[in-house]
């Protein structure tokens, strides 16, 4: 029975190691994906005016402008 427990423990540890390696690989793949595509998008801060114009709900359009 001791040998069976050792095998189960070894299998459990192997699964845990594989899961950890997969997790770190996943993070690296996501980071690489972001690095490859970040330059494609305009990521500068947006002004309130730009935001309002993009969504179409400006105070002027709603008749709320002074």
Shape: elongated
Largest sheet features: none
Report how far apart the termini are.
84 Å
Content-based structural category: mainly alpha
- In DSSP terms (H or I, runs of 4 or more residues), the helix count works out at 2
Question: Can you describe what's shown?
Answer:
The protein is an all-alpha fold and 66 residues long. It has one domain (2-55). Helices cover 67% and strands 0% of the residues. The protein has two helices and no strands.
In short:
Helix content is 67%, strand content 0%.
Write the layout of secondary structure elements.
Blueprint: H1 2-37, H2 48-55
Key attributes of the depicted protein:
66 residues, mainly alpha, elongated
